[in-house]
Amino acid sequence: MSVILLLIGVLVVIAFLLVIVFNRFVKNRNIVKDAWSNIDVALKRRYDLIPNLVETVKGYAAHEKTTLESVINARNAAMAVPSDDINAKIKAENQLQQTLRSIFALGEAYPDLKANAGFLDLQQKLNEIEENLERSRRYYNGTVRENNTYGESFPGVLFAGMFSYQHFDYFETEEASRENVKVSFN
Prior knowledge:
By secondary structure, the chain is mainly α. It has one domain: de novo design (two linked rop proteins). The chain has helices at residues 2-60, 65-80, 86-109, 111-115, 117-152, 156-159. Helix 1 (2-60) packs antiparallel against helix 2, helix 1 packs antiparallel against helix 5 and helix 2 (65-80) packs antiparallel against helix 3 (86-109).
């Protein structure tokens, strides 16, 4: 009789621990998705501003057609990635970030454009969005760190497969986007 009670007690403890581990996986995944939704909102605002920025620049830098087209193409590619495919979205956003830097370099190359009130207003709004994105990225990366650490360490690693653990990528800047953008008129 005491063996049966001991066995039942052990099973209850194991079940309780499994519930705790499962709930931690669910909590971490939901926090990461919540953090991503903050980024997604800022990205939507960025997508809405980009066409206005491109149209403003077009009037001043008509011969920069390839630069402007690459910005629009990168925006459209980033918008086409489903927002629930976080890892693919990060890659597309890094590409868009790189092309946006080239359009701001055009502002430096054209003094009339740089003085245009519409361009300055759009640039200011985009800068605000980028600052908001930076804060959101830091928060997102912190939640990803928590999620990934728990899923890859004990006891989470024992149950990761059983509880459909999802590894998330960090939202980091690609090496190419850290380089200075150069505009050439050759």
